[in-house]
Amino acid sequence: MSDDELEAELRRAVELFDPVPSHLMQVAVEAYTLRTLDAELAELVFDSLSGSAQVRGERQPRMLTFQGAGLTVDLEVTVTATGGRVVGQLMPPRHVEVEVLGGRPVTLTADDLGRFIYDDVPAGPLSLRCRLGDATVVTEWITV
Fold first, then answer.
1. Enclosing domain of residue 75
2. Which residues partner with 137 through β-bridges?
3. Among 55, 88, 93, 111, which has the highest number of CB atoms less than 10 A from its own CB?
4. Over 60: is that where the pLDDT of 3 sits?
5. Are 102 and 125 in contact (CB under 8 A)?
6. Could you tell me the CATH number of the domain that includes residue 66?
7. Torsion angle, CA of 73/126/108/137, rounded to 10 degrees?
8. What is the pLDDT of residues 103-128, one digit of tens each?
9. 117-122 long-range contacts, CB within 8 A, separation 24+
10. Whole-angstrom Cα distance, residue 35 to residue 39?
11. Rounded distance between C-alpha atoms, residue 80 and residue 78, angstroms
């Protein structure tokens, strides 16, 4: 029996003999939802994919702009065979930490001009969290 098969068998046994109570699952979901309650959601104000027909051929980078709490986050997302690459800039420029939330969370540091790069982004959803002193700004989720 492989490790994956053993893990699947153990999960089935736990679900059968010791399932998570539904009220506890609801509490966990609500707690997870509230984890960013103090963060302001940065609104997506520009997406180069919206309103344009997709043309077959070479993929172009996706350009996105988010705004919230006096901060603008510009992103260029390039999809690669294994995931993608994200190049970003914060306006006004700030030297802050940018947390990338998603499949493989990572913390980046924006330079004095507000620029940051994340290579080897795993395919799937991601969001950015920028901590600006007392304020926290979180972008909507996008898919790479």
1. 38-143
2. 40, 130
3. 88
4. yes
5. yes
6. 2.60.40
7. 50
8. 888 999 999 999 999 998 988 899 99
9. 117/85, 117/86, 117/87, 117/88, 118/85, 118/86, 118/88, 119/85, 120/82, 120/83, 120/85, 121/77, 121/83, 121/84, 121/85, 121/86, 122/82, 122/83
10. 9
11. 6
Residue 21 has a pLDDT of 86
Do 17 and 85 lie in one domain? The reply is: no
Asked if 94 and 108 count as a contact pair (C-beta separation under 8 A), the reply is no
Judging by DSSP bridges, how do beta strands 40-47 and 135-139 pair with one another? parallel
Peptide bond into 125 cis (omega under 30): no
Mean pLDDT of the chain, nearest integer: 86
What would the two tokens of residue 119 be? Answer: 């290579």
